[in-house]
Amino acid sequence: MNTNTELQLAWQFIENTGTHLFLTGRAGTGKTTFLKELKAKSHKRMVVVAPTGIAAINAGGVTIHSFFQLSFAPYIPDTTFASAQASYKMGKEKVNIIRSLDLLVIDEISMVRADLLDAVDAVLRQYRDRYKPFGGVQLLMIGDLQQLAPVIKEDDWQLLRPFYDTAFFFGSRALRQTEYVTIELKQVYRQSDAFFLDLLNKIRENSADDTVLAELNKRYLPGFKPDKEEGYIRLTTHNYQAQRYNDNQLAALPGDAFSFKAKIDGTFPESAYPADEVLTVKKGAQIMFIKNDTSGEHRFYNGKIGIVLDTGKDGIIVRGNGDDESFLLETEEWTNSKYILNPVSKEITEEVEGTFRQYPIRLAWAITIHKSQGLTFERAIIDANLSFAHGQVYVALSRCKSLEGMVLSSPLRLESIITDHTIDDFNREMEMMSPDRVKLNLLQRQYFYELLCEQFDFHSLERDFGHVLRILDEHLYRLYPKLLGQYKEAFEHYKTEVTKVGDTFQSQYTELVNATDDYAHDEKLQKRLISGANYFKTKLEELLSPLLAMTKVQTDNKDIKRRMTDAISTLQTALHVKIGTLSFTGEEGFSVSSYLKHKALLTLAANDHNSAGEHKSRSASSSAKSDKTNKIEVPSDILHPELYKQLIAWRNSEASGAGLPVYTIIQQKAILGIVNLLPVDIESLIRIPYFGKKGAEKYGDVLLDMVNRYVEDKHIQRPEISAFTNKNAGKEMKPEDVKDSKSDVIKKPRPDTKEVSYNLFCQGMKLEDIAKARELVTGTIATHLEYYVRQGRIKIDQLVSQDKIEKVKHHLQQHPDMRGLTQIKVAMGDEVSYADIKLVLASI
Fold first, then answer.
1. Domain 641-737 has CATH 1.10.1200.120
2. Which one, of 332, 390, 327, 399, lies nearest residue 367 by Cα?
3. Which of 9, 5, 36 minimizes the C-alpha distance to 22?
4. Which helix (H) or strand (E) holds 336?
5. Which terms does the record give in the GO molecular function aspect (predicted)?
6. Fewer CB within 10 Å, N or C, the chain?
């Protein structure tokens, strides 16, 4: 790499900028070697992915789908299905990797579809910065567009066409939002024969003529039969050609052959079979695994070569090449699915039409050109005369190290060389994106400045702070007025003493960065950054650290509790990372490598701490069910902590004995009212918000006994309870009677929407009339009334005509396995509506 100008430039772009890079070049120009060196020497935290199993193994990475846990459905932007894919919950380890990632390497990018790249963007935004393409991760895309193109079925393309101009990766909507550069490697390492290189270039650039074909066809050797020791491998364009060759090799082996027939259920087109319908193997057969090991033991992966050690009617014993242990292979299952896009709801649904079960192997004396991408052979027999896709001929020929090591099993024809004109258009644009040293220097400065701004940006932390404050202010203000006041005060100080000062500080360091060429080592700049880092670190520790330490809130509302826990966790993580990086900058000054390193380590440490906290919380919760003396955390707004602990312990004991949730005994809000207001008798106890007569009748005596004993023991003066309860003494105070402290409007509970529809139906209105009156669609009203059909409060013939009921039931009897609403509707056509089907299903 030291003598290769393009490789040196590529290294500088990856190491010293945050700019996305498309690294391309013809076969054998050192792309794979560059990746291996990058993995070994780069200071950036990276993950390597590829579109196929073989490509991933060759790159030393994993497949895109497995790493990002993506389905194989097309990713349709701006649909709920896309959102569901992007919000898929990952394990802690995977999330930590993503959040601490600096660089994502995608090898064999030519085979990556535009929608797949957008799906990656969605996942990265989910777990990182949702405001930046790819979550702010730098991309290194490696590949040659003159090689194999992405595979896309016509049905999938019909779904994607409205959103994409091309299926190639550069059609990605997320990528088009970014600035990325292209570096093309020119020096070829795989082939040293200049004459052979020139022939390959002509094929690659779609400029091959009769002269080029004549030279290549000199390697057509009719009847060529190599010795086994020479190590020739056969490359074919179609699977059936490889299969035929493998069958011949199998027949030449001694011993008995055993066949295993696939089990196929439902609809599974023969053209889509993922393995042989009838797999025939012998002892000594060379095989390739065609699926990843689903047992979790990682014994094999898609593309791994192995050998059959023994076989019989009871199964197949195999061993992977290079492995010491053999194992009994088990069958695997594939599914055939169909994807439907609803033009109204924009939802895409997956319907499994059939399954295919077979041993996940195939014979492997020959492989297809598609599976050979990224490999290099000393000797190969190429049969590319029946090529059918862009780049196939070029990929096949360029797998060979020399012209002498290549043999053509049939002459090449000009029409076999297929290219996509979309690539030609992109190549012209690509030339404009090729950077030079001037561009590199500009982007290096920009990267330094962007990370510097990230270090001293306090707006995102303010958003996290504000989120916690909003939850307190909107949902917990009655329970924790004191804590809310502290948050509001600290938030105002944060905006003036941190965010506003940070904005002013940005203009100062911006001027210093622009004033010097040696911005990374400028003494005046570093001195100012050290001073600023120490100021902001101190302010954050003063304003936020004590506040978070005292924030212990309890609520019976599970949704609010979850939201508050998540918001606090996010704020704690962001604060931990920010204070930590500021601390290192305050001691050492600012540098790109140091900032990236410490930010990643601090992020991982914060996530581990939060996970440990969640585990501790879960353990404490579990322990509380069996250990009544378990430590009880007291919220900061409690006036009488000891009494609070007594009441909580009593409530937990009652709930455990009755086998009920704790809030059914007494709500958290009522406990806070009792603890802070100290009721003296049944009348004042009834007036506690969220308690009432029923609670007083059942638990009044025991609660008053605890309160009165506490007051006597502590010699406490009781507060005036009327200030906190309904002004009408003796009247039970209900939640709906409580006024919002922010307004004089009395809040009333929202009516149950399905009950409203039910009441209108009982008044004699039809579905269509109810929908019109409520300004909803008929399907929504059907969903409301479906609830009452299931309960038996509405008879099905009151909603659906008898002939439609019979049609639907008859169809279900004829097709007992068909329960999907969409499947039934498609099968029955316009005879019945979705609402009719939904209601009949409810009645059954």
1. no
2. 399
3. 9
4. strand 332-341
5. DNA helicase activity; nucleic acid binding; nucleotide binding
6. C
Report phi then psi at 765, rounded to 5.
-85, 145
What pLDDT is stored for residue 625 in this prediction? 41
Per the CB < 8 A criterion, the answer to whether 290 and 361 are in contact is yes
| Span 753-843 CATH architecture | Orthogonal Bundle (1.10)
What are the strands, taking DSSP E only, across 67-123?
103-106
**Where along the chain do its domains lie?**
5-190, 194-419, 456-619, 641-737, 753-843
Contact 616, 40 (CB under 8 A): no
Q: How far is residue 309's CA from residue 311's CA, in Å, rounded to a whole number? A: 7
Report whether pLDDT(621) > 50: no
Instruction: Write out the two tokens for 655.
Output: 């709930």
Comparing 337 with 352, the larger pLDDT belongs to 352
Mean pLDDT of 717-734: 48
Mean pLDDT within 410-431: 73
| Residue 679 to residues 191, 195, 716, Cα–Cα distance (Å) | 91, 99, 12
Question: Within 13 Å of residue 303, how many CA atoms lie on the same side as its CB?
Answer: 18
HEC string for 653-669: HHHHHHCCCHHHCCCHH
Mean pLDDT of 786-801: 87
How many whole angstroms from its chain centre is CA 692? 47
**731 falls in which pLDDT band (50, 70, 90)?**
very low
Class (C level, CATH) for 5-190 = alpha beta
Angle between helix 558-588 and helix 437-455 axes, rounded to 10 deg: 120
Residue 727 · residue 682 · CB < 8 Å: no
Cα 483 from Cα 481, distance rounded (Å): 6
Fold match between 641-737 and 753-843?
Answer: no
Q: Model confidence over 284-321: pLDDT tens digits?
A: 988 878 788 888 888 987 767 788 999 987 899 999 87
Is 70 exceeded by the pLDDT of residue 283? yes
Determine the Cα–Cα distance for residues 182 and 478; give it in Å rounded to an integer.
58
Tell me the backbone φ, ψ of residue 309, rounded to 5 degrees: -90, -35
CA angle 647, 652, 654 (to 5 degrees): 95
Q: At what angle do helices 459-475 and 558-588 cross, to 10 degrees?
A: 150
Identify how many contiguous H helices and E strands the chain contains and give both numbers.
Answer: 32, 20
Q: Do residues 396 and 235 lie in contact, with contact meaning Cβ atoms separated by under 8 Å?
A: yes
Q: Residue 715 CB: number of other CB atoms within 10 A?
A: 6
Count CB atoms within 10 A of the CB of residue 225.
7
For residue 147, the Cα-to-chain-centroid distance in whole angstroms is 29
pLDDT in tens, 159-189: 888 899 888 999 999 999 998 889 988 877 6
